[in-house]
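Input chain follows. Return structure tokens only.
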Amino acid sequence: MIQTCDPIDDRMYVLGDSWYTNDKVISACDRRGFFYIGGLKMNAIVYPWEHRSSVKMLAHSLRPEDLHSVTVAGKRYDVFVYEGKVSKINNAQVILSWENGYHPNELPFVLVCTDVSLDPVTVLTYYGKRWEIETGYRYLKENQGFDQYQMRSLKAIRRFWVLQFLAYTYLEIQRDQHQFSTLGEVLHQERQAYLGRLMMYAYEQGLKRVPAKQMLHEFGLTA
């Protein structure tokens, strides 16, 4: 996806959770001239003050005076910023952040950013966009089966994506036309309407004395 993405800005940022924060993904971003911002696991290796350490060990070694406070979208964070080598990444910045203040017994939320020119507020703000992305993915997965495809070729996967987003666009149009608050309401309405049409069709076929065996076969309910 990174290799085939068409840039829409001079500075492109790829966002990912800690599962996708690895050398392969970040190298793909580097080859395209993109920057990466993503979650970082606690066992990632950093070198603060020229000492090798895991992120978890670093977090436990910090003192309150090592941190400074920032405000992002109305929320306060205590943050510590490290810049340097991160595991196999030659140079990046790592941001350890504690929401609502630092606490020595709580592990921070950790981000890595390959654009070392960004300040912590900007990095946290950019990463906050993932909430909207994740909400969209969750809707597509739970309500439209976005994660249920069983195919391997890129061509087939792209076709599946096209069908998914066509369905999504249709639901958005229906939501706008009928002034529903959410896509979930539209989806419920569409399912109810489909079930009603199905029942009316079965009723009409019954009036025509269509054999039950034929109806079951037509609905795919027989082997």
